[in-house]
Write a structure and sequence with these properties.
It comes from Acidisarcina polymorpha. By secondary structure, the chain is of the alpha+beta class. It is built from 13 helices and 33 strands. The protein has six domains: about 1-35; about 40-225, Sandwich (Jelly Rolls); about 250-355, Bacterial OB-fold (OB fold (Dihydrolipoamide Acetyltransferase, E2P), Beta Barrel), CATH 2.40.50; about 365-465, Nucleic acid-binding proteins (OB fold (Dihydrolipoamide Acetyltransferase, E2P)); about 465-570; about 570-700, Heat Shock Protein 90, CATH 3.30.565. The model is unreliable at about 220-270 and about 725-735 (pLDDT under 50).
Amino acid sequence: MTVSGALRKRTLLITLALAAVIVPAILSAVYLRGRAVRGLPYRDAFASADANEWSAFGGTWQISEGAMRNDSDERGAKLMTGSPYWKDYSFTSDLELLGKQGDAGLILRSSDEEPGVDSYRGYYVGLRSNDGSLVIGRADYGWIELATRSMPGGVHAFQWYHLKAVVNGCRITGYANEVPLGPIQTLSFNDPNCIMKGRVGLRSHSSGGVWKGLVVQALTGSDPQVSSPASSAVPVLLPYAIDDPVTMSQRESGFDPHDRDMISSNVPGISERSLPVETIGGLRSVRTENRTAMVRGTVILNSPRIYVQDATGGVAVMPAAETRLKVGDEVEVTGQVEVHDFSCIIRHARLRLLWAHAPAAPLAVTPTQAATGAFDSRFIEVDGSLAGQTAGQDKTTSLAISSSGQSFNAIVNLTRGNTILRNMTKGSLIRLRGVCVVDPQFTHNLTPFVLLVASSDDVEVLAGPPWWSVRNLAISGLIAITLSLLAYLLYLHARHWRLRAIVDERERIAHEMHDTLAQSFVGIGFQLQAISNNVPLTLPNINQQLDLACELVRHSHEEATRSLSTLRREFLELETLHSALHNFASRMVEHGTISVQLRVTGEDTATPYAVKDALFRIGQEAISNSLRHGNPSLLQISFDYAATTITMVIEDNGIGFDQTGDLRGFGLTGIRKRAQGISGVFHLFTGAGQGTRIEIVAPLPPRLTWLKANRLFLRDSRKGLSNGKAPKQNSYSYRR
């Protein structure tokens, strides 16, 4: 090789090595870059009541009038979506707080979310009503407040704001202004140990909130943070029960009666101050018609009815005017009490907010306990197996649940889509949290109670359907049968290969015996004949003995030749069983006076070689015994080929024999063993002077079906296990 050729080769190798490094690096960079912006820009579909891609961690999230709403004062409620690989982007939303003592806003670059206060890793940009400020913070399963700045005019509940959060590298920036044209407040912070990527989400703390117009866009400009949020149109106000958490009368608080009338009305003829506060559980003890009562409790459900409970029980509330309460609000209810057997309703109710609070925890009960009616209008938690689900009215789904012989229905409000419910399968073990109702309006007298579930977030799948269901058992059985069939087929192939090896070995031995033993008989015959020719005729005794010896050698040579021919595979493969046995008998009686007759019924189509070989040797022995001991004049050979059996009969008209005598030397023991080796049945009919009839009925292997193959495989396996080793077959068995 020349110097220039070696140089070119070295250059080519270096180029290939660089390409092997650079190309994967470029592809990885392109892939990571694409993953960082995949799914962007993102816009919510709340206007079409679709939020299947969002995951809730606490709170009571639901879509209402094209906006995502959390009617809960739970601390740290979160709703998450997006890709964990999003890096630099802006997140924009219109926002309304539903309480004066909390905050709400946007989560950025989040990961590892769990239910609980600050139980995630990411950034937060929001508005806080306590001190009227714009807040930037970081959560890492703990709260770190990074920066705050007061909003012009403060932050007020039930006022819409436009909020924009931007993350670019390690800089987090927030913009906020009051809708529609309030002054823009800007707040920025540079985190040296920043979180580089993560999902987006909504968050509220000690206050409910409403979000709409959500947009997430990837950053493309060189300095996109200098842009300001665009002005937003004034959203439709979502009315709330009472704008202030009050505990006094309207006159003392200075609250506008006009706003109060929007959500409640006075009970005619009743002074609120003249009524004592009763427990909810005590309402059922008095059954006076048109009785007015006052109770206090916590709101546990606000749709399709308002339900309030205290420590003693729960009650359905029918307000005189439309209202919107948050789950967890502490309220005072005044109205007319309607008592039923197991339930209670307060009609024409006046509601007064006492204070906002986090939602109450459910009471864990069994379906049997709930069916007694003791937990009517209470917030409970029950477990059961899903028996079915059907679509209901007004965006609801009805779940049929059963547990320990008790059945009930659960009505789930599809406030954020039905992804969880759609993915549940029949037979799944689920846990539901909702309000237990025994009112016939919901039960229709078909189930003892109905569970009203606020959203699909209150449905938790504990376990999938049990594996021993009918469908799974059928599939498992089908797989087991298939595997058993395959194993048995392999087993039959192995036995077939073994039989082939035996046949090949027999054929080899036959060839070797032909080359040695048979030729030796010929040599001995020639030698004896030569000796006989040289012996004088004056020695008759010696000549007679030599002639007898020559005859024995000739006879032995013929027998050896016949036996060797039967050892060869072609012997029974080239002709049928009955013709081979008939030819054998004809050769035996050749030049004699004995007549051989053959009768065949049916057709030999698929007789296994092992069965043919065994029957042929049984027939040889029977014919030899008949000619040697029976002195017959007629020998009959009969074959009956049936679908499942072969019947062979060897019969003569000789002298027969007594079966009670000594049967040694008749070869019957060998015949019986060979018949047993092919699972055949041996019959002997004879008597002194009555001839002899030998009948063999041999079964044919049936056509293999799945069930029969499985049964045979299991039977052979049990035999092998019971013996502690592989089952040993008879040397003549066709089942080898």
